[in-house]
Amino acid sequence: MLQTLAIAHYRSLHDLVVPMGRLNLVTGDNGSGKSSLYRALRLLAETAQGGVAAALAREGGLGSALWAGPSQIDARMLRGEVPVQGQTRSSSISLRLGFAADTFGYAIDLGLPLAGNSLFDLDPQIKCESLWAGPFLRSASALVERRNSVVRRRQGGHWQVVDEHLSVFDSLFTQVADPQRMPEVLALRESIRGWRFYDHFRSDQDAPARQAPLATRTPVLSHDGHDLAAAWQTIVEIGDPQALGRSLDDAFPGAEVRIEPHEGRLHLKFHQPGLLRPLAVAELSDGTLRYLLLIAALHTPRPPPLMVLNEPETSLHPDLLPALARLITAASARTQLWVVSHASRLIAALYESPDCHPIRLEKQMSRTTVAGQGLLDVPPWHWPRR
Length: 386
Known about the structure:
Elements: E1 2-10, E2 13-19, E3 23-28, H1 34-47, H2 52-58, H3 62-65, H4 75-79, E4 95-101, E5 104-111, E6 125-133, E7 142-147, E8 150-155, E9 158-163, H5 183-193, E10 196-199, H6 228-238, H7 241-251, E11 256-262, E12 265-271, E13 279-280, H8 286-298, E14 306-310, H9 321-331, E15 336-340, H10 344-351, E16 356-364, E17 367-370
Parallel strand pairs: 3-15, 3-16, 10-14, 14-15
Antiparallel strand pairs: 1-2, 1-4, 4-5, 5-6, 6-7, 7-8, 8-9, 11-12, 12-13, 16-17
Helix pairs in contact: 6-8, 7-8, 8-9, 9-10
């Protein structure tokens, strides 16, 4: 389970270190930085997929993603005694992302390459990466260090150079994750690749979730929900069908979902009391379809290390939100959850869970902070040096 998430110089996240629990509920006003924190998590996930540079390019490049405020913020600026103004930069351009679990921690530092003759001089370069054992980085716990093109690993009481010719545009996860030489890197890469993100399922008439998928076992619902019927039937056969039925009945009393095969494809039928025939998935309301997708995602027979739900209340009737909170709370017993929400009713219901770890974001001088987080509340964190 992740214990700490750290972000520096990414959009409004100038220097943020967030403690994490089993069920993390991220709230805050519009513009407080919730979306930036969600994007930062996605960027961390991209390091294990080999796409962190491409993901930054889709955001407008490193220059667009960097913190746009002054490099140093002193107390007088925060009190309004002096104006916010630019300063002579005393350090290199740097965007830092990292996390720590009870087993391993990881951090990456991205910057710009030295000016040259390439037309790709604005592509972000990986300046350093570090992987360590335990909840925070210290010299004795470092296991793997990468500086530009050189990566080395700790071997007993000394350091051994593993490679001196890494691509500076790709993470060490995609270049040296070897089960013999670098088992720590491989283990952490596979853990990060297991993270799942569900962000605004489509529910229009052409939505992938309204199509009939192929009849194939699907223990993990796809991010767009196109395999809903297959994922539902997989839960029935190899998951927990009783818990699945209870979640459905909690939201839609007396309702039943049946999966019918036809010519190699699976068709979802929604039976409700009082109707003479079941509803096909194409006939479901947006809210009903989205809720069925959330049920299938949260009852996965293969729980991930981390599941992220971005505004799961979208298109749901307010009366469904208490049931959604119970669904999320039950799922947090099987996987670590990160929920971003605006809905006061969902937030209030999740607060009732003893495992709920609230993270309320606010902005001060355009900088995102955690409300109520004092100096002694910040988890211990040290960034690797370039």
